[in-house]
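Q: My labmate handed me this sequence with no annotations at all. I'd like to see what the chain might look like in three dimensions before we decide whether it's worth expressing. Could you predict it?
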Amino acid sequence: MGELVQECYGMSLYQAAVEDKTVSVIYEQLEQIEEIFAGNEEFFDLLTGNRLDKEEQKKMLENIFGDKLHTYLLNFLKVLVDKGRMSFFSEITAFYKKQYYMQENIKEFIAITAIPLTEKQKNKLAETLKCASNVNEIKLINKIQPDIIGGIKLKCNDKELDKSVDNLLRNMKEQLQEIII
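A: Here is what I predict for the chain of 181 residues:
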């Protein structure tokens, strides 16, 4: 059910944005809204729960986002409230983002490191990935995972390149066990 909802609503919003030539504007605003919802779970709960009726939820959206969002996007959020689909917002945003990335030839990579990458390291890695991937732009997300000890894990879609110290040690251990046995 969720997959059908995200595809239906995500594609509807995307097509409206294409027709209005506001695809990138809507994308940026969706990202901002997603950050707001992630940082304010109580606010999101008010929009998805039963504590307020739908009219109060839409009024709240109007008061908070009214002059800050593109009209299509604000109306889209109101439709999600009306149809009881606001709980699918993240999935709908992910679908829209996927369409946007395909159109703009953008790839998103997740760089998992033991410590945060510096801006210089991020820029160099993004440039290297851009050349290797033959895309217009790289969106690089740095996630911290101290247990990898050092090195880096790169993820893009369903592919992963693991050059972490933890993985290298694990591989060495397996090779040593094969030799010993």
